[in-house]
Design goal:
two-stranded antiparallel sheet; globular; mainly alpha
Length: 117
């Protein structure tokens, strides 16, 4: 999964770890009625979003954008450059998984703000 913020890529190798919990075990799936998710408000979804992406690790710009959702913007913002980076990361990672060059699950960042100061 690619989130586009700070170049975050989650790799979960369910093919190698069939009992692996979703989102690296950060999301407590027990007690979550998936059929009711669509009826939750954005505020009610925040604890689940936090468990999935770790809101404290988001960029300052994304944190601000989240506060603007439903006000000045409609949804999670995405820049074309970030989408292209995410597509490249996912494509390269999938290729290496299919070639058995990588076997590890994990969360990885290609954060240009940190890499190029």
């Amino acid at each position: 999964m690619d989130t586009n913020d700070r170049g975050m890529l989650d790799v979960e190798r369910f093919d190698l770890e069939p009992d692996r919990p979703l989102f690296h075990g950060n999301l407590n799936e027990e007690g979550i009625d998936l059929t009711k998710l669509k009826d939750l408000t954005s505020q009610e979804k925040l604890p689940m979003l936090d468990a999935m992406v770790n809101l404290s690790a988001l960029s300052d710009r994304m944190k601000y954008s989240l506060s603007e959702m439903g006000k000045s913007i409609n949804t999670w913002p995405q820049l074309a450059s970030s989408v292209v980076l995410g597509g490249a990361m996912v494509t390269d990672t999938c290729r290496r998984i299919l070639l058995s060059e990588t076997t590890s699950s994990g969360r990885y960042y290609i954060d240009f703000k940190e890499l190029i100061k």
